[in-house]
Amino acid sequence: MSFRTTPSVSYVEDVSPGRGALPPRAWYATSDAESLSLNGSWRFRLSATAGAQDDSFAAEGYGAGDWAEVTVPGHWVLQGDGAFGSPIYTNHLYPFPVDPPHVPTENPTGDHLRVFDLPDAWPADGTAVLRFDGVESCARIWLNGTELGEFKGSRLPHEFAVGELLKPAGNVLAVRVHQWSAGSYLEDQDQWWLPGIFRDVTLLHRPEGAAGDFFVHASYDHSTGEGTLCVDSDVDGRVSVPALDIDVATGESVTVAVEPWSAETPKLYDGELVTPGERVPLRIGFRTVALEDGLIKVNGRAILFKGVNRHEWHPERGRALDLETMREDVLLMKRHNLNAVRTSHYPPHPAFLDLCDEYGLWVIDECDLETHGFTEQRWRDNPVDDDRWTPALLDRAARMVERDKNHPSIVFWSLGNEAGTGRGLTAMAEWIHGRDTSRLVHYEGDWNCRDTDVYSRMYAPHAEVERIGKRLDGGPGKRRELPFIQCEYGHAMGNGPGGLADYQRIFERHDRLQGGFIWEWIDHGVTHPELGFAYGGDFGEELHDGNFVCDGLVFPDRRPSPGLVEYKKAIEPVRFEGADGGVRVTNAYDFADLSHLEFEFSYQVDGMPTGAHTLTVPPLAPGESAEVKLPAAAPDGDGAEVGWTVRALLAADTPWAGRGHEVAWAQRTVAPRAPLGTATGAGPTAAGDLIVLGPGAFDARTGALRSIGGVDVTGPRLDVWRAPTDNDEGASWQDDTRWGVLWRKLGLHRMRHRLDGVEADADSLTVRTRVAPAARDVGLRTVYRWTSDGERLRLTVSVSPEGDWKVPLPRLGVRLGLRAALTESALWFGSGGEAYPDTRAAAKLLRWDASIEELQTPYVRPQENGARSDVRWVELGGLRVEGEPEFWFSARRWTSEQLDAARHLTDLTPGETVWVNLDHGQHGIGSQSCGPGPLPQYFLKAEPAEFSFVFSAIG
Ligand code: GAL
């Protein structure tokens, strides 16, 4: 007896890269050959398993009229309103049992069908190829009923020869896509699992004599100022570069004087490769990358990466990015002083690399390889150390290098991410080194640097980075000779990262340290009808890693977060230091002089700019400094604070920002504000059940303030709680320093206020309290002393910790409530944007105003946010509050407890009170959601403290 079983799907679990695809070659977007985009609406049928359906759908004449439709490029789980399954987010855990190369029987499989006609202009001669730029994770292809092959390698291109199969009309392209395959074991990147044809599908006409593969070699000799061009081409032809008067045969090299390419000066020459059958436009950048004197040098100079890790992300379309979104990323990066991108953790859409060439960004192009989940079994069975998988690894390396090799922006090839170590990686490195001697090889996972040209680490703490910079880190001989980068640092999850300016100072102190790449560019929040942006778990995943997927410098909708503004400041390419009667200006670019900038100088009095002057700065070369005289004498502040601001602005429009765009700035205080004065003269008097002191009315029994000059106030009283940030909460592997967890354990979110006494004397009202959590013996003796001069009310808060405090405090200050109906906005003199002790480099101190809504930073998972630092005074809700010393303020329409309880922003609803925190201190932010916590100097220790606020009602 025989049975007919399900169709064979053995290729799905086959470790090989696939069958039938053409060898990889250089990618280019356009040429004079015809092409036909097959993007658009495709017929779609979803099955629960790989073998649920036979192949009959691929046959010509198959009736798919009742199938659903999806848009290609796209991920089916992000289409169909949930009818096609949901995204799954895991960091490193495989969302299926680890038994390589096997995958679950439940293997969502999407059959895609597209019928197309050739355009009239399609030539009758020649042949054609079908190109798939990205399909996750395994695809099998048929054209007009004939199978072309199958492939894995989701973020890599695959081409198939289709010449004889094409018809003028009614071509049937059938693509079967499996969510899980052996390839999934190699694609365990920390991101959403998103199956589908998510990059372009294109039919390319290949005329007789069309270009095949070609390799543009364009080097630059900084000692002569000459570039050497040689284009190796499978198909002989000619190469022309009109601006350089070059017209040579392929394979022939030519040396001429050129302007070099760098990320700062991205000079591209338009050229053309002409083969007998095709003209391919080239954009040529001359540059030489070398490892020299233990340093990464480009065109003879050591470079400093001011980089970011970029995953491809769009909140609605996932990793199916359109050109405008890619351009937006590049523009945002350039406008925020970034100069480098690591394409974590796979080659991006090739158009992104064109943009990096054009606008100028150094690129580490990373292979589509991560096997992180094997760490759960101590790397046993790791595919990168198993020869059976090596062909797949080599195929991935080749598809990346061959596709992307003609981009001047790429300076490093990266073997992949978090894949342990093994022979397969070594084989990849050897192949890459052999194929492209003009670039360096990166891989973080091997700290011995066996296969790499750079010592790379992630999340190394400041002190360790400094040790490495001083070459005190030891290590094997080869590593000791290599430069160092942090391929990931500064974990931008939620509020933060902290400590960036401190890292930058260390990078700049030691030559061996060549900078780093923040983790990461964008929050991968998914637009969700009820939740705003969804994260892990929001789609009911059985295994997930929550909001660890939201750890970017920009929000899912690409609005810059304060972390990006802070980074921009930390890495700014011009430095200013106050000097006697002047300012010392330093050019911190690697290649550009300062002639593209103009400098604006102004004084501000009490935070108000008083008019701009031009500061004349010589066109300093990289590394040079000059001392420049201030262009005007300081105005008399008459007791108000006087300071200056100097700004470096683009002197002319650039492709990425207009004239006047701010590149760098600095401020100095020239004359401090006068002390606030003691506010004495008035004394407390009893009035029924109230005590009146100047403009203040207090509850006579409790000493609680009720109103100031008729403005109702709840509180103020001591507050130490903040809704823990992701960086406070820390990562699960950091048991002793997860402050968010320890704070909660101690009970800092449920402090009790015991009233010990209300005392009125001739000129003050004193309220004595002890603030402490239930079940613990630690506490904070807190004394509120109120005085007044009749018009203003001064509060001095004295805090004395009792008991053995083993943890820092989240914050230390007072919280008060104001009537929401009367509190729409705030006006203040202090930092313009959000700032915390170690995220304060970008705190520009001026007079600012903002609505209460604008004072909130919309972190995808709600948490402490929005504090303004260095505040001298703030006016809101009919009150003016001055502080001594300067303070932090935040204001929101919900309490910290409500903020803490919320999982999404949509959980937060405004109440009748605006809650205002006036803080003497805040604990640092750090990077502990993945890396190190705040540096010790940013700890808010439980120590005796005293601070004052002066309140007055304003009309
Ligand atoms: C790194 C990893 C990234 C990401 C990050 C944490 O270990 O390379 O992919 O997971 O940690 O967000």
UniProtKB/TrEMBL annotation:
Residues 691-952 form the Beta galactosidase small chain/ domain. It catalyses: Hydrolysis of terminal non-reducing beta-D-galactose residues in beta-D-galactosides. Keywords: Glycosidase, Hydrolase. Its EC number is 3.2.1.23. It is an enzyme of class 3 (hydrolase). GO terms for molecular function: hydrolase activity. PANTHER family: BETA-GALACTOSIDASE (PTHR46323:SF2). This is Beta-galactosidase. It comes from Streptomyces coerulescens.
